[in-house]
Design a protein that fits this description.
Helices cover 20% and strands 21% of the residues. It is built from 3 helices and 6 strands; from the N terminus they run H-E-E-E-E-H-E-E-H. The strands form 2 sheets. Strands 3-4-6-5 form a 4-stranded antiparallel sheet, covered by helices on one side. The protein has a two-stranded antiparallel ribbon with strand order 1-2. The longest helix is centred in the middle third of the chain and has 14 residues. The chain starts with 19 loop residues before the first helix and ends in a 10-residue tail after the last helix.
Length: 140
């Protein structure tokens, strides 16, 4: 059972949720750029067609969205939606502390409708793993 209260206003909002129960639901309902394969292994693209570090210092991470992605209301998912979702989680700074998973992000840039570029404050080899968590879920 999930209950919204003033202390927990949005128990199934990716920008707030940071517990096993909520994440189990969000992993099934919110799309992320990357996903962990069943079993074990490095993250692989989900909403992204491809993602990779594009510099030698692991401080610039670029993703290209798959074509034809849509929200449940039929609206196309764009790079701007990804940027909005990440910046929203960072700005809300939920008491759960989930936003800290994205704390190495300095800025998010978009190029066209399908490319999103994350400029990191410091090298972060775990960044693809962080993009596979619900806090990086793409919201409308």
């Amino acid at each position: 059972r999930f209950t919204a209260t003033s202390e927990a206003p949005a128990p199934l909002d990716p920008a707030y949720a940071y517990d096993v129960g909520s994440w189990n639901i969000l992993r099934q309902t919110v799309q992320t750029l990357m996903i962990l394969p069943k079993g074990d292994g490095d993250p692989v693209p989900e909403a992204a067609e491809k993602c990779a570090f594009t510099d030698t210092g692991n401080e610039r991470y670029a993703c290209t969205l798959r074509e034809g992605l849509k929200f449940s209301n039929g609206k196309a998912i764009t790079a701007e939606d990804v940027k909005f979702s990440i910046e929203r989680a960072l700005a809300l700074k939920a008491d759960s502390g989930v936003f800290a998973l994205l704390s190495t992000i300095d800025t998010v840039e978009t190029q066209g409708d399908r490319e999103v570029i994350f400029h990191l404050k410091t090298a972060d080899a775990t960044f693809p793993y962080k993009l596979s968590t619900p806090v990086a879920g793409i919201v409308n």
